[in-house]
Amino acid sequence: MSAGGSRGGFLLDRLVTATALLLGVTLISFTLTVHFGPDPTWEQLGRNPTPEQIEQVRQALGQDRGFLPRYADFLLRLARLDLGHALASGEPVVDLLARAIPVSLLLLAPGFLIGIVLALALAMVAAWRPRGFVDRLCTIVSATGMSLSLVIIVIALQAVFAVWLDWFPARGWRVHDLASYLRHVTVPSLGLIVAGLGYNLRFFRSVFRNVLHDPPVRTARAYGFGDGRIAIRYVLRAAAPPILTRILVAVPLIVISGSLIIEKHFGIPGIGMVTWNAMMSGDQPVMMAVVSLSSVLFVLALSVTDLLTGLLDPKVRGA
Amino acid sequence: MTAPVTLRRRLAGLDRLPVALMAVFLAAAAGVWCGLWGTDWSTISGTLREPPSPEHWLGTNRLGQDILERLLAGTATAFEVGLLVAVASVALGAALGGLAGFHAGRRIDTLLTWVIGTIDAIPFYLFVAAIAFAMRGWPGAMQLAMILSFWTLTARLVRTESMRLREREFIAAARASGSTNRRILLRHILPNLAPLLLVQASLAFVAAVKAEVVLSFLGIGLQDSISWGIMIAEASQEILAGHFTNFIAASLALFVLVLSINSLSDGLQERLDPRVRRTPTERLA
Amino acid sequence: MFFKGLWIPIARPAVLALVSIAVIGCGRGETDAETAQKVYRHAIDGAPASLDPAHADNVYAATLVKNLFDTLYRYKYLSRPYELVPNLAEDFPEVSEDGRVYRIRLREGARFADDPAFPGGLGRAVTAADVVYSLKRHFMSETRSRGGWLWRDRIVGLESDATIRSADQSVAGLAAIDERTVRIELTEPYPQFTHTLAMALSAVVPREAVEYYGREFGVHPVGSGPFVLNRFDEAMAVLEANPGFDRGPVDLAAEGFDPQRHAGYDLEPIDGKPYPLVDRIEVHFISEPSARWTSFASDGGVDVVMVPPELAERVLESRSPLRFKPAIRERYRTLHGLEAGFVYHGFNMANPEIGHSADPVRDRKNRALRCAMRDAFDWSARNEAFYHGLGRVFPGAIPPVLAAYDPPFDDDSVTHRPRQARQRLQSAGWTADTLPPMIYGLEASIQQRQMFEQFRAWMQEAGFPPGHFQPRSFAGFGEYSRAIGQRELDFFLLGWTLSYPDAQYSLQLFYGPNAAPGANSVNYDNPEFDRLFERASTLPAGPERTALYRRLNRMIIEDCVIIGSLSRTRLYLWRPDVRMFPDREMVGGYFLRFVDVVEDRP
């Protein structure tokens, strides 16, 4: 099979999977949020509504229409990338996402990246010398980290760093330059690092351990190549596919829901907070946009993972 | 067919400390189930915010309820939620994963793979909140949501595993000797999967207990009940005023329980297959 | 080797993306605004969804709407009890002899802020036609008005089934006589009408902007108020002084300044200065009480805090009389006062098992049940646990903040009497087996869950079997109101905030025709009450009306329709370099235009 053919086949295959996935996600979410979900009508009413007004609002929101026409309508709009308007404010959902997503990315990127790099470095050292000091430390850190709930971490960090020590703002997001950004992002990032470190450390260490058992690495170590060279040239490369998969698949979850608790607790207007408010008030256009977006991201992440795995693994490459 | 025996032998050598801790937690929960303690978690038995005393070992909360009673009752809740979600999600995952793996490449496999992918692509909180809404005040809404969301992880593993087993000789032999599919599944495949399922169940247990805390914190947790998550959520409003007992009691209990189960499950995995270690599900870290 | 080839293609776009995100995220038009001299950081306990005046029926939206838009009337900054004063109107309305025809003249020089919605982007003068349009649009279905009920059936041409299809459709009772005069004809006297013209719902909007922005008007407000909107999201709104706003200087004496009552607030320096006095106001939306405190207590946080009851202990020296600690008084300025509203528990009177029954025997029996629950309810414990004992418990639905408040004629209805509760149940023939089970509705918050546990404990003490009250929690207020509106709940907790200082506004909660889904959530149906309420509604203020109001209040107490009520005490602290009197009750956010900060503030 020629390289071009296989690539085309891969893309087509991906496209079919992606479409099927998107349909599945929207169907389930639409059924749950729109069909069984909270009736947004009552959120839109004044303090003394009459039955006629309620009927009017229901009609305006399309609540009186059947499931299928509404779902079809939603799909058609989605295909045209028309996400509609938020029910409560009337703001176009696209604008809403465009202002909320950058906030979430800015908020989460440092904690996510530092957490990964820190875990990679520690895991490498730990795997390099099993039962050494760092390895033991990692065991304790990962066991502790995995047993802590993000909720507890966030409450405790805020109390310590923002209230008692008063080093950082306790909440909010008034970011206008680098200094203010760093002030606001530090405590949430710490929370993310602490919450994720345990899981990452453990995963990376076991991946590295497996790789270090591989014959080429053993040979290289036996030949006395420099540690740094082996670590970077062989181990990191050989371990790249599972690590990249893990990171990439985590991205959509982080972007959409990982930030919910942090944003809610620290009062940061990112996508997590937007989603949460929409959920509580039954703002269907916003919810459906978030769900659709996250499934698209998810599919993208999986596809990129496949591509990278293909690029990295000579066996898959040659095939 | 030797799996159960091996499993028993493998379980025998687990670490003492986590086992002991688990026993303490289980005893606490059992006491609640037998009505020995923890039944008065809702009763207002003292005045507001009493410090620890012989009557109230951990003091009372803002209503005058005994914090220890609530902690104990919360332990029982943690086990109820954890066990139910673990058993149900693993059973569901095993059944559907096994079905898919056994019929790999056929239409039912495609369908199930699609369902699994779909559920994994929906943001967890959105999914749970949506189910909670759809179930409108039904007391089991939260557990159902967790089960419907957690089973996919087990299903993926079981699917892969049973695809591998399907090709092994003893299955072929069984098939040659005229066993039905159902018989093969029950007598040959399932026992071989038991260790994997046990590990998955322990991970699901931990995930459920931790998820309960998050969901209660968000206000979409259990309905009319007491749990550690509810205690932590209550505490989050009073920490600044200098009332820590609720927070420390519940977080510590949660921490120790999760730590014990994690280390038990680690020990288990090491004995099962030292090379393959699974990382606990962290969708809810 | 391979390694280089692998990482560069991944790393470069990733770095680029991060940098570009950082640039976009950081350059959000705030840098220039930050150089503004006078910034005041306000905090409110919830976020508004829409800033369209037609949706502003809650205090959060009203706080912003009253500053971005203008209403015909407003309340004086400092006078208590509340006093109306012309705002966008030039003077008080001329009312005809029979109280049905209002003529209102607009002030000269009021202009809408510049906005792309206007030709050339330049704002224009506010005219009488704008006032007419702003009221009329409440009756157009695309507005999805939350305030139409205030004027429906009240203004001629807006009778119950009337809808307005186009903004050009004329309404008999609403007319712009000339550029600056509005004539409004009412179906019957409505003494509270002028008050409704001070509510955020009645704020004046330009038709061009409403049509230009369509559904997005709620996030692109264009008005003639003292401020314009700079930023608005889930966490905060940023308002900037509207350069085109000119109402002349502040006249402190006319606003009700009393050197004694307002001593120590350092308000004198604002007298004679044009307002608004600050360049920029940040309104932070912080719903968690402890987070509000945290932000206030940390450097660079908000300038004002409504102290959560959990933390009252930290700031108060004594509760009665209420006095702040000396250390707090040294560091901050302080204010305390009762809210213009109340919380209460209501029964669903439409449920024949517990409420009105056609069978007079059962009706009496049900009343005994409700009254027994009321006896078993311990308001002082509720007050102690959730309001730090600072709430004011009062019988019925006329809160102490109103002139018609009945000084405790009889505290019986808010006194904890578990023994009397048992006796009542017994003598009415209720036993554990016959007591009808009830669905207790609550919003899924920690506090409401705790309130339920407290309530259940009291009821068990009075003899209700455990499990008798089935809690049903709702994740959002919309769902909760739906359940109440559709009469699914038997017993529920509600709050009611007054929009104008008149008992009519709280007694309408029991008026038969307002039954659910309307404001009469308890579905009280008493023809005698309705008749007297209708009579009181057209009466001008005076002893006759007050007597009627009190009689109505006693009727709902007599019938055990609600368990209540309690008005919360608000405790405010703010930084001493802010000059203000941040009372948001009734006045909503009107005080923001009079807020000043000292010049050399860090």
Automatic annotation (TrEMBL), chain A:
What membrane topology is annotated for this entry? Multi-pass membrane protein
What does the entry list under GO cellular component?
plasma membrane
Q: List, alphabetically, the Pfam families matched.
A: BPD_transp_1 (PF00528), BPD_transp_1_N (PF19300)
- Record's CDD domains? TM_PBP2
Where is this chain's protein located in or outside the cell? Answer: Cell membrane
Q: Which domain of life is it from?
A: Bacteria
UniProtKB keywords: Cell membrane, Membrane, Transmembrane, Transmembrane helix, Transport
Give a GO biological-process term. Answer: transmembrane transport
Record's keyword annotation contains Translocase:
no
Q: Which residues cross the membrane?
A: 12-36, 105-128, 140-165, 185-204, 243-262, 286-308
The residue ranges of the ABC transmembrane type-1 domain are 101-309
Keyword Transmembrane in record:
yes
The entry's family comment says:
Belongs to the binding-protein-dependent transport system permease family. OppBC subfamily.
Q: What is this protein called?
A: ABC transporter permease
Automatic annotation (TrEMBL), chain B:
Keyword terms, alphabetized: Cell membrane, Membrane, Transmembrane, Transmembrane helix, Transport
Report how it sits in the membrane.
Answer: Multi-pass membrane protein
A Pfam family matched by this chain, by name? BPD_transp_1
Q: Which InterPro entries match?
A: BP-dependent_transpt_permease, MetI-like, MetI-like_sf
Q: Which Gene Ontology cellular component terms are annotated?
A: plasma membrane
Q: Which SUPFAM superfamilies does the record cross-reference, listed alphabetically?
A: MetI-like
Q: Where is the ABC transmembrane type-1 domain?
A: 79-265
- Localization, UniProt: Cell membrane
PROSITE patterns named in the record: ABC_TM1
Q: Name one GO biological process term.
A: transmembrane transport
- Membrane-spanning regions, if any? 17-38, 81-104, 111-134, 140-158, 189-208, 244-264
Which family, according to UniProt? Answer: Belongs to the binding-protein-dependent transport system permease family.
- List, alphabetically, the PANTHER family matched: ABC TRANSPORTER, OLIGOPEPTIDE TRANSPORT SYSTEM PERMEASE PROTEIN APPC
Protein name, entry field: ABC transporter permease
Organism (species): Wenzhouxiangella sediminis
TrEMBL record, chain C:
Any one Gene Ontology biological process term?
peptide transport
Query: Where is each Solute-binding protein family domain found?
Result: 83-515
The protein's matches in PROSITE patterns, at most eight in alphabetical order, are given as:
PROKAR_LIPOPROTEIN
Compartments, record wording: Cell envelope
Give Gene Ontology CC terms: ATP-binding cassette (ABC) transporter complex; outer membrane-bounded periplasmic space
Q: Name one Pfam family in it.
A: SBP_bac_5
Q: So which domain of life are we looking at?
A: Bacteria
Write out the entry's keywords from A to Z.
Signal, Transport
Molecular function terms, GO-annotated = peptide transmembrane transporter activity
**Main location group:** other
Q: Which PANTHER family match?
A: PERIPLASMIC BINDING COMPONENT OF ABC TRANSPORTER, PERIPLASMIC OLIGOPEPTIDE-BINDING PROTEIN-RELATED
| Family under the similarity heading | Belongs to the bacterial solute-binding protein 5 family.
Q: Tell me the protein's name.
A: Solute-binding protein family 5 domain-containing protein
* Organism (species): Wenzhouxiangella sediminis
